[in-house]
Structures are given as C-alpha cells and as structure tokens.
Amino acid sequence: MRRRTQALALSTALLLTCGGTIGTAAGTAEAADKVKRTAECQGDWLPATPTGPDIMNGQVEFLDLPPVKVGKDVNWRTDPYRNRSWSMVFHSLRWMGRLVADYESNGDRAYLTRATEIAKDWVKDNPRRGGGSPYAWQEHPIALRAPALVCLSKHVSESWLTKSLAEHASMLANPALYEKGHNHGIDQDIALLGIGCRYGREQWSGLAIRRLTETVELDVDSQGALREQAPRYAIYVYDRLKVAMDNIKECGRKVPASIEKRWKSMEDFISHSTQPNGFMVPIGDGGADVRPVGYAAPKQTVKVFGNGYVYGRTAWNKPESAFYSIRFGPGMKYHGHEDHLGVTYYAQGRDVLVDVGFHSYENSAYRRWTMSPQAHNVPVVAGAGFRGGTRSSLTKSSIKDDRQSFQLTDRAYGVARTRSVLVNHGEDVMAVLDTVPRGSKVGTIWHFATDLSAASSDGGKVVVKDKSGWKAALVQVAMPSCKPVSSKVVRGATNPYQGWVSPAYLRKQAAPAVVSAATAGSVLTVVTPGTGTPSVSCSGGKVTVETSEGTVGFRVKGSSLS
Fold first, then answer.
1. Which of 98, 216, 463, 473 could form a disulfide with 455 if both were Cys (CB 3.0 to 4.6 A apart)?
2. What percentage of the chain reaches a pLDDT higher than 70?
C-alpha cells in the first residue's frame, strides 16, 4: 500500500505542475493547422515499423515478423509468435509514440486521438497490481514505454496519463528493479530523466543522472569495450548514450564528463569489431547482419581489449583484407556465449571460420546450443565436464605488421587448456595449437561459413569451396609427431545440434562444421584460405606450410607458436 500511496501522491503533484488541466491540450499553433514538433516526440527512438497508417488500420509489425491485426480494442495479452522480444516491443508502446510524432508532422488530429485511445486502453487493461499481460510491468518495457507516454503528455493532459507516468517514475526509481551496469539500466535512466524533466521533479532527474554515471562506468571500460559480451550491443549503448546526453542538455543539466568520455571511446571498439565486409563480427548475442555505419577507422590494425577481445586485420577500408577475432576474459554473462578461446577468420573478401551467431532469446534447444562451446571454434577436453562461466586469460602476445601470435588459457574443463593462435598476413595462414596436460585428450570444433561446402575430407585435411570455385583448407596434425588427426564434417545435424549458422534473427542455415577426434597432447590446426592443396610438414619444431601464395614457416615450442 505504501508504494501505491506514494504513486498517487506523485500523480497529484504532476497534475498540479501541469496546471491541473483535464482534456486535450490545444494552442493557437494547432488552430492554424500547425502542431509544434517536440524533442520528446522526435528522434531515433521511433520505430520504422509499424508505420502510422499501419497502426491507424489496426495492424502492427515488429522484428521483421509478419504483421498482426490488433484492431481498435487491443487485446494486450496478444502473443502471436510466443516470442518474448515481440511482446516486449508490443508493450513498449513506442508504436503508439509513432502516431504522436506523425501528428506533429501532419497535423492530422485522428492520429493523436488514436494514440490517446491506445495508451488509455493500455493503462486500463494493465493495472500494476495484476490482471494484465505478464510483460506489462517488466523492467525493460517500463523503461521503453515511459518516453512514449512522456511524448503523449506534450499534447494530452489527462489525469489517467499523469497518474500512470507517476507510477512509471516510482517503478523506475525503485533500486530493486534497477539494472545497474547494463543497457537496460541506461534505458531506465533515460526514462526517469524524461519524466523528471517533463514535470520539473529534481529528485527523479538527479537520480537518473547519478545512476547513469555509475552504470556507464561499469558497462563501458576505459578502452570503450562493452562488458555485455556482445559487440553489437555496443552500437545500441552508443546510440542510447547519445540520446541520454542530448536529453540531459535539453533538461538544462551538464553531462558528466565520464559519460561523454566513455561514450566517445566506444567508437574504436565498434570499429575494431567490424569485419572488412562492413558487418560486425557476430560474437555473443549479435547477428551476422549488423552493419555499423559512420564510425571512423582507427590507426591501429591490431587491438587487444582487456575485457576479452583480440581483433586484427591487414588494412582498413579494404574488403579483401584479412581479419580475425579471439575471445577471452571474464566468464559468460549478460549477452555472452561460452566462446572463450574461440576464433573467427575472414580472408580474401570472404568469411572462412565463423561464429554460429545469434538466433533469438527464446529458451529453445537450438538457442541453448548456440550459446554452448560446441557452437564456437574452440578446443574441447574429451571426457571432462564443462564448467560454465569460467574466466580465461591472455598470457602472451606478439604483434608485428605481417604476423601476430597470442596464447590463451583457462580451466573450463577442470584442467588447463591452452590455445596459441598465429595469424600470418601476405600469405594468408591461420595456425592454432591446442594443448592439454598429460592424461587428457583434446578435440576441436570448426565452423565454416554457410556459402562454403565440403569438397573433400581425408587424411586430416578438409577442403571447402564456394560456388565460384574458391577453396580453403583445414589441416590438422598431432604434435610433435606431425601425424594427421582424423575428423568428420557435420552439416545440419539436430540430435545433437551441429553444423548450423544463424545469419539473422530467427534464421538458421546448415553449414559445414569440422569435428576432430580427441588427441593426447597437442593438436595443430592450419587454415589456408585460397587453396585446397596446402602442404604441411614438420621438422625439429619448425612447421612449414606451402600455399598457392608462397611458403609460411613458424615454430612450435611446447604450447606456443611463433
């Protein structure tokens, strides 16, 4: 009862702040068929779909899923796809805000009337104390819905709306519901700031700015890397922080320096996370179809981010450049996957070794598989149980213009597994050495891009090709014996899942995966883009790889490559 009493008291204060008017606000500008455009109702928070005409026709479309008829009297328990993301967007009411923004542009009062009907119906059918949709008062829909209601309040001053905004503010200010150090927390702060600034409530706007400062310092490290373990969320956080900073200024407040500094530092992280083809590497909950736009290329071609990412390339702004990523760092959290020690490799204008990617947030067997080690290019200790959430460390690195090498280790299987990665440029070669202690055996999993198919598999060598005839080879030998390691190619298996890649949300395609036999000691994997006939030989700790572009040599010493 205490929370409800507080919300009612706050709503009364908001009504007094607004002059206590009841009914639709009207001004001389509107009488002249010109409606004032407001900062609260304009901006990139507005959805591209559904459009205003769609909504006026009683139809909504979210997440590229087929449109849904909701009619005039909306059923707020509508859940046509049994999809949590769809329901979250539905209850965010951003699509209602689309109508208000359009009204500001076209002056068509029917748009404002319909927006008011939708919002009022939502408030009536979704009381805070239950009886509505289970999604209605979850923390993220609250945060996304509040700005849409603030937008509506610029044109409508009715008691049900101010009371609802007061209740939203009460929920947003509740520390028990706050997602500190997470993109949801940023959205919560933007929402609370918006209500506080709209009605001159210093305790709300001040709290939002203080919390936002703490959240940004937790979520974005000093290098600009996002701790949420999915680089595509860095774009979301970057965009939302820009909204937050603009709103702070609109509110007449000063943006804390640490927020602006961390925001700016994210540009490098986003750029380094982007492959030469312009698409972001799909690490964690990040689709392979995410294309960052407008971020400048840094000077460095190789960058190690302490929060768990190594990115390297041969050059910027050249689609044919080589590119690789390596994962390490804190154990899985937020939007991360169990991908530690995993690599991806792009070369000669093509995806070669890929991450399986992001399918959806639905709790399905496929989703769980995409998050598991088996969906990433990692070493697996045979017969040992996997310990989820284990931290891994980058223990060595050597960075030269034409060659880089790195060594990583963890105990995710109860024993030390060590991976050394060497990438040679010019003659494109990636070499990976996986080592486990005496008494253990190590296997490996490698995922190729969907446009590649297996051309041959024999004697420790798998050759893949695309429709143009371009080829790449993956050769595996035991070390130090240099004897071939047998493997099998799996494509489109479902029991268990293996040999799939998700190129976009709610999509999956069969793709070749190479699963090697468990081997004692060390396994060396050599990937040669552009040729299906490499020759790999060993002599006295030196490995020589003959490719169509030339000869590449490197040394194997213990668990290290150089």
1. 463
2. 94
Find the DSSP H helices in 232-373: 232-250, 257-272, 365-371
Q: Kindly indicate the confidence band of residue 33, based on its pLDDT and cuts at 50, 70 and 90.
A: low
Alpha carbon distance 375, 218 (integer Å) = 29
Token couple for 328: 């390490």
Q: Determine the Cα–Cα distance for residues 6 and 9; give it in Å rounded to an integer.
A: 5
Strand partners, 348: none
Q: Which helix (H) or strand (E) holds 388?
A: none
For residue 98, give the H/E element and its range.
helix 94-106
Centre a 10 Å sphere on the Cβ of residue 4 and count the other Cβ atoms it contains.
Answer: 12
pLDDT value of residue 137: 95
Are the CB atoms for 544 and 536 separated by under 8 Å?
Answer: yes
Using CA atoms, how far apart are residues 183 and 216, in angstroms rounded to an integer?
9
Stretch 180-196: mean pLDDT: 97
| Whole-angstrom distance, CA of residue 56 vs CA of residue 466 | 47
Q: Is 476's pLDDT higher than 90?
A: yes
Task: Tell me what pLDDT residue 119 has.
Answer: 98
User: DSSP 3-state assignment of 524?
Assistant: strand
DSSP letter at 127 equals -
pLDDT at residue 80 tops 60 = yes
Q: What share of the chain is helix, strand, coil (3-state, %, to 5)?
A: 30, 25, 40
**Amino acid, res. 335:** H
Alpha carbon distance, N-terminus to C-terminus of the chain:
67
Instruction: Please give the pLDDT value at position 297.
Output: 94
How far apart are alpha carbons 524 and 500 in whole angstroms? 24
Sequence-separated contacts (24+) of 458-461 with Cβ below 8 Å: 459/484, 460/484, 460/485, 460/486, 460/487, 461/534
Q: What does the alpha-carbon distance between residue 347 and residue 548 come to, in Å, rounded to a whole number?
A: 14
Burial status of residue 318 (CB atoms within 10 A of its CB: 0-12, 13-18, 19 or more): exposed
Region 338-366 average pLDDT? 96
Residue whose C-alpha is closest to residue 515's, from 376, 408, 409: 376
Residue 291 vs residues 280, 286, 488: alpha-carbon distances, Å:
6, 11, 33
- CB burial readout 511-545, b (16+ within 10 A) else e: bbbbbbbbbebbbbbbbbbbbbebebebeeeebeb
CA distance 251 to 164: 21
Give the strand pairing for 343-347 and 350-353.
Answer: antiparallel
Structure token pair of residue 380: 């697996």
